[in-house]
Amino acid sequence: MNQKSDLIIIGGGVIGSSIAYHLLKDGFQGDITIFEKDPVYEFAATPRSAGGIRQLFTTEINVKISRYSLQKYKTFPEDMAVGGEKAKIDFKQRGYLFLAEHETLSELEKQAKLQQKYGVPSELLTPEELKNIIPEVNTHDLTGGLYCAEDGYLDPYSVMQGYVKKVKELGGQYVQDEIYSVNKEKGHVTGVVTKDGMIYSAPIVINSAGAWAQIISENSGYPLPIVPLKRQIIQYDIAEPLEKPLPLTVDPTGVYFRHEGDSLITGYSEKVKPGIDFTWKRSFFEETLWPILANRVPNFERAKIISGWAGMYSHNTKDQNAIIGEHPELKGYYLACGFSGHGMQQAPAVGQGLAELIINGRYETINLSPLKFERFKTNELVIEGAVV
Ligand SMILES: Cc1cc2nc3c(=O)[nH]c(=O)nc-3n(C[C@H](O)[C@H](O)[C@H](O)COP(=O)(O)OP(=O)(O)OC[C@H]3O[C@@H](n4cnc5c(N)ncnc54)[C@H](O)[C@@H]3O)c2cc1C
Known about the structure:
It comes from Piscibacillus salipiscarius. With 388 residues, the protein is α/β, with parallel strands linked by helices.
C-alpha cells in the first residue's frame, strides 16, 4: 500500500469510523487511511456495548451531543445505505429511565429543565406513573424517575459496520496493522509508526483507539488521563415474561437492564482495578446483580444466565468524559477517546464535529471545545452527574 496518506485514523471502531465517514461526506480533500489492528473487532468496546442511547445527561455539552446523535440514529439506515441496501441498526425507541430513590424530585426536575431547554422531551414520573412504563416494577423505595420516551437502544456492531461500509464506499481505506506511536517533527505530527517499525506519513493523525488510546499517546510522549476499565454484561432469561418491552432502565444502585430480544441484559459499573481483562463471571450476576434485579422486578427472581461478556471502557480518570480536539502541544494530532460509558450515543456528533474542525478549522454544528484536552490544565472539568 501507499505509505503516504493525507489523514490517518488510529482505531476503526464506532468513533474512528464515524469520523472517517463525516470527513468523506463533508468533502475532505485527500486520502483517508484507518489503521485497525483487529479486523473482526473481537475486543473493541463497540460490539461489547449495551447500546443505550439517551439524552438524559446533566451537562449542556453532553445533552447537545446526545440530542444531535439521536436524531442522526433515526435516519442512519437511509444515510448509510450502500448499493441501495439500508444499514439495519435495530434502533428501538423504547425509552431510557433513571429510577430515583434518594434524589429528591427537585434535583431530577433541575436535570429535566436543562434537558428540555435543548429540546429533549424528558419527563419526571411519579412512582405511580412508573408502573405505566414497567407494570411489574417495585416502587416501594422509589421517589420517582426521569424518563425520555424518545431514547432507547440499538445494535452497536451494526452501527459500526454501517459506518465502515459507507467509509469504504466513499473511498476510505482500512488497513490491518497495529500502531505503536505517532511520529513528529518540530511540533507537528508527521505520521505513525507500526508495532513492526513501518512508517506511514500523514500531516493529520487522529487517535481513536479506545481503551488503547493512552498507550499509543504515551509511546509518543503525550500521556492521556485514560485507563481501560472492565465492564461486564450478563444476558439472562426469565420464567415469567414482562407485560411490556423495557426501556433501558437504571436502578438507583446503578444496575441497568433492558430487553435483548426475548431475553434481558444487565450490567453495572463495579469497582475494578484498571487493566485489560475480558473475563466475565457468573458469580457477578448471582452475587451482585441478581439480588438487586429480583428486588426491583419480581419476575427477575426466576432468572437463568444465558451468556455474558466483558468489554473495556476507555475511562477518563479526570471527569469520565470524552477528550476531543487537537492536542495543544502537537499540531495535527487529534484526540477522540476517553468516552467512558457513553461513546455509542456520542459517535455521530463527534464525527461531525471533528470533520468540521479539520476541514474548516472550527466547530459549526455543536461547539465541542468544552471537551478539549486543555481542560485538565485549566481545571475546566466537565462534571457529568449521570454516568452509567
Ligand atoms: C460493557 C460496555 C457497555 C457499554 N454501554 C454503552 C451504552 O449503553 N451506551 C453508550 O453510549 N456507550 C456504551 N459503552 C461505551 C461505548 O461502547 C464506547 O464508548 C464506544 O464503543 C467507544 O468506541 P471507540 O471506537 O472509541 O472504541 P473501540 O470500539 O474500542 O474501538 C477502538 C479500536 O481501536 C483499535 N485499536 C486499538 N489500539 C490500536 C492500535 N495500536 N493500532 C490500530 N488499532 C488499534 C481496536 O482494535 C478497536 O477496534 C459501553 C462500553 C462497554 C465496554
